[in-house]
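Supplementary Methods S3. Input chains for the assembly prediction are listed below.
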Amino acid sequence: MSARSIPLVLPCATRRRLLHSLAAGACAVLAAPLRAAPQPVVVLTSYPDEVVSRIEAAFEKAHPGQRLQVVWRMPHDALPYLRQPGQGGVDVYWTASPRNFATLKAEGAWRSLDGLGVDRHGLPAVLGNTPLSDPDGQYLATEMAGYGFAVNPGALARRGVPLPGDWEDLADPRLAGALALPIPARVGFAPVMVEIVLQAYGWERGWALWSEIAGNAVLIDRGSTFVADEVAAGRVAVGLSIDFFAAAAVANGAPLRFLYPRHGGVNPGQIAVTAGAPNPAGAKVFVEFVLSPVGQAILADPDIRKLPVRPAAYASLPADYPNLFELAAAGGYGFDGRLAQPRLGLTAAAFQQQLVVPHAEVAALWRRIHAAEAKPPVGEAARAVAAARRALGAAPLSEIEAADETLRRRFRSRVEGADATALEDVEEQWRRRAAARRAEAARLLAEAGA
Amino acid sequence: MTRHPRRNLRGTVALLAAALATLGAAGVHRLAGAAAAGDDGPYTTADATREAYGRPFATLDEAGRPAFFRGRSLFRQSWVVAPAQDAEVDGLGPLYNRLACLSCHPKNGRGQAPAGPDERMQSMLVRLSVPGSGPHGGPKPHPAYGDQLNEEGIPGVPGEGRAAVHWEEEAVALGDGEVVRLRRPRLEFRDLAYGPLDGVLTSPRVGQAVFGLGLLDAVPDRELARMAREAKPDGVGGRVNRVWDAQRGRTVAGRFGWKANMPSLRQQIAGAMAGDLGITSDLFPAANCTPAQAACRAAPNGGTPELSGAQLDAIETYLARLAAPRPRPREGGERGAALFAAAGCPACHRPRLMTGATVAGARHGIPAGTAFAPYTDLLVHDMGDGLADGRPDFAASGREWRTAPLWGLGLQALVNGHTYLLHDGRARNATEAILWHGGEARIARDRFAAMARADRAALLAFLYSL
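Predicted structure tokens for the full assembly:
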């Protein structure tokens, strides 16, 4: 049979020529009788397009009668939106901001998911010491993400540094300039990371460790490069990250690994239905879809790579897919997000004044300390270097000060994407205190001849 | 019986292929264009992972990286309803299609059409117009719906409706008896919020890949004109679309978009921001509301304009500096390159273009005289009835389409998870895309259809090596 025996059939074009149809673009255009669009399920979220698009497509495919309307806002911007009269017409809030869910629960923003008939069976309430879902059933976790280290094994090997197993390994002087650190006050996921270390190592030791880690670090700002990109390209050997960024990069071919530290931490993404939801029935359908096997399976998409909250979902995932339920069962997940939430903004702001604003100076001083310790010093010089280390690692404020509710309230809106407008007086105070300690460390190092 | 050509196509192809084989690899590549046009230069990337469409030029230095990353961040940004605390990224809509640029250009690659009428358009939209010319000679917008169906509206502003896609299949037989099923879309409009869409011209479009755009932007207008004038075999013509340049306020050569209806990368970006996201800019300062859309006109905006000049600069910097994937050797690809040439494909899918001393090239840091291999001529060609949308766009008729670049084609399945091609995503693979070619490309299409199965496979191997 030759190519000429069956011509390419062009029924639409023929029809178009015959009818001189104006609706030529796609063969023919039908217009369904005019009718109102179905009432949408309005979902407020800050998830990236990779998550939103896939869930949206799968949801509407699974429920052809439903429409999703996505309103996108970062968590700090979502709070005022949900505090509007009528809660902005939002039916569902779905994002990774436990603080917002807890804050809005206290304001009576949610309706009971139990009351709506959402089935919580098979959904653990906690992971380690971290609550995943509201014990009163007003919001439920839909996914999780763990904190840890994106590493480039080759770059580490070139520096003679073993794979880091916990946070203190990041203070290794051989990692100077080879560690990517997202700025906590600027990058949405990073404030929790600060708190994981403070809880795991204690307030004083935690701040000292952060100072030394920051001294090794290259800072990563919002809207700039990605931590995983820096690690994969070998510009740094380690990047502090939340797992899905690194795992998605790995799934996309990046030559890196993600390691969960011994002192781990998890941040759950959660979902709630607003008290004033215009479409509670649709909201329930959406919540149940996100928690369904189909919705949970979408989390494993190579461009998403988040962790399902339904343990049963792991049975269908690859054997090497991270399972934080198993890690937590083995210990190490003592981080309590509830304790961290009220002071996230405060510690991120203190971190900013202590370690980010004067970062070049901090890094230079740690290089001098590490160089002096490498010799190592003796006598007065040793005492001076040790004193310099203490000065540089001193906490910007005490844990008692950080517990002050008034102070915490002043910084509550500072994280998860919010920009600071003017510095608070207490920040000026931290800045001056940190500068004095750096000057002291420099003086001590000079005394030690370092 | 097919209408053309009347000669023995299979014999012609066999002779041409045999002749080309005697040229050796270098000669074949010259004819097919492979490896002869800066394939391994700093404006290409050897990355063959799922991130292959997102790599910068190797010339991007430390000083240039921040702007590139700012642009990437904006390209990925989901835009926010105004007013918002995130004032830099508010102003979505009031009417729009998707939240982010990335939505229609997933992983900087190609979008796709819905699989059926119950799936929503995620990386596809429908252009609208009515007969006649609009301002500056472009399409005349529909009086109630404008020039594009915006399926979404911000809260309080009804979206314009939904376009559902029904697929109709038909069979076509190839020279060796193999039967290929082709599908064409039939649109159905649902839930129209602003009255009937009577008398409308429609054109469904999927998002295009966005790498290598700086190189295409830096080809001089005079080179486009020269290529249009050049004599070509097989009745191939090709015209430069003449379109409105909003920045310069005059009609110039078009080069971006499915019908080359945009003159520059900058205007292409600003046009998509306005049309797809409802984000105003200095180039397109008006909100996308028609007089019939009262709620849209009353909605708050995110500033005047909503996209600042600096933000537009950043997105342009990002897209202009996205490297094109390098061809990757593939078994049979070399013979396929010869067959690609013998079939006449390079008459339009030009393997070698050259940048000139242009303003765009200077902006993008691309020197004049840089050769590259996009496999397009940036001209519009009559592609026949099968692909015609019947919707003129500036000087491009309803049968004309810009030659689609073929670079990066072989990585599409990996990056985007599908192999769909053509303006409305109807072709499920390269074979179907070729078989849809008509008009000026009919002879080349028929040569492909007449090839032996092994030759078709070799030609496809070449395409997928790009």
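Chain B has one domain: 9-464. Residues 9-464 of chain B form one domain.
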